[in-house]
Amino acid sequence: MPHINGSHHVTLSVGDAQEDVDFHVGVLGMRFIKKTVLFDGGLPIYHLYYSNAAGDPSSVITTFPWKQAGLVGRRGTNQARENLLSVPAGSLDYWTKRLNSFGVETKDVDALGTRRLAFDHPSGINYQFVEVENDPRVGWTEGGVGGEHAIHGIYGVGIHVQNPENMVEFLDQSFYAGRLREEGERVQLAVGSPEIGNAVELVVNRTEEPGTWRYGSGTFHHFAWNMDNLENQAEVKFDLEGIGYTDASDLKDRTYFKSNYMRTPGGALFELAVTHDEGGWTCDESPEELGTQFMLPPHWEGKRDEIMAKLDPVTIPTNPTDATRDTTL
Ligand SMILES: [Fe+2]
């Protein structure tokens, strides 16, 4: 039976590369695991990867920093909008202090009956921390944030829709979702299994214009689901096509995983991803050296010097002051 094994990764279009690194590594304490480039198109743009301790599926945030190319997106409806991340139960007060100490404004929000912490990426993308009891995914503790607070991984994705019905129908009938919960303008479904890192939340938004789908700073680009293996990925795509969702892309080799992409009725771009047989993140760097090299796809390796000359260097924070800060909060 075709199935979805939770989420795989989240990909965002952000602004400045160094600002993005400083935010995810320096402020959120995530692990920097890969520096490469956007594989599509002809413009060299960084592709930066961040994760929890293990870098396992459902724990990875990736970004394309578009500031150098001057591309700015527009947030709106019919678009993924919220990056929902799982943090340990009882950690929100710590995160409020930590984020505020770095000048990041926070807001307590109530969603589906529980308190969450909302804040924005420097490019404007909405983040929410959701407390999860007994999340087995292990946070990265060498970045200045202790294990009792460190980010477990993805909780899910919030998608703004003008009208939720078509997306609920798609998720419920064609995308292995269930457990619908609803409160006010927010509807949550859980996609596939296991029951962790797999929430899709539809936020009814009838006041804003549709947001952009192309690349551009300040917008979500896509949300990837873990297909486990290529056979299952092909079956999921085949079944979606049989229902009428025939716009899934061809299979693209991203070095670390292989993926199809499809636009959903809610406007969000979904990716059907399979971690590469030959080791995923560690296929070209050892576990100890993840993120220390600049990795290029084979078709661009011959232009390495030219590409490096076009991209501003980024420095990965080592966090000595953050570690001190952590113990004083
Ligand atoms: Fe992706």
Report what the structure shows.
The chain has one domain (7-328): 2,3-Dihydroxybiphenyl 1,2-Dioxygenase, domain 1 (Roll), CATH 3.10.180. A hairpin with a 5-residue loop joins strand 7 (114-120) and strand 8 (126-132). With 329 residues, the chain is α+β, with helices and mostly antiparallel strands. The protein has 6 helices and 16 strands. The chain binds fe (ii) ion (FE2). Fe (ii) ion (FE2) binds at residues 9, 11, 222, 224, 271.
What kind of sheet is the major sheet?
8 strands, mixed
How many individual β-strands? Answer: 16
CATH superfamily: 2,3-Dihydroxybiphenyl 1,2-Dioxygenase, domain 1
Structural class: alpha+beta
Question: How do the SSEs run, as a string of H and E?
Answer: EHEEEEHEEEEHEEEEHEEEHH
The percent range for helix content is 10-25%
What general outline do the C-alpha atoms trace? globular
Instruction: Specify Rg, calculated over alpha carbons.
Output: 19 Å
**CATH topology description:** 2,3-Dihydroxybiphenyl 1,2-Dioxygenase, domain 1
By CATH, the architecture is named: Roll
Within the largest sheet, what's the order of strands?
2-3-4-1-13-16-15-14
Mean pLDDT over the full residue set: 93
At the first level of CATH, the class is Alpha Beta
Strand content: 25-35%
Number of domains: 1
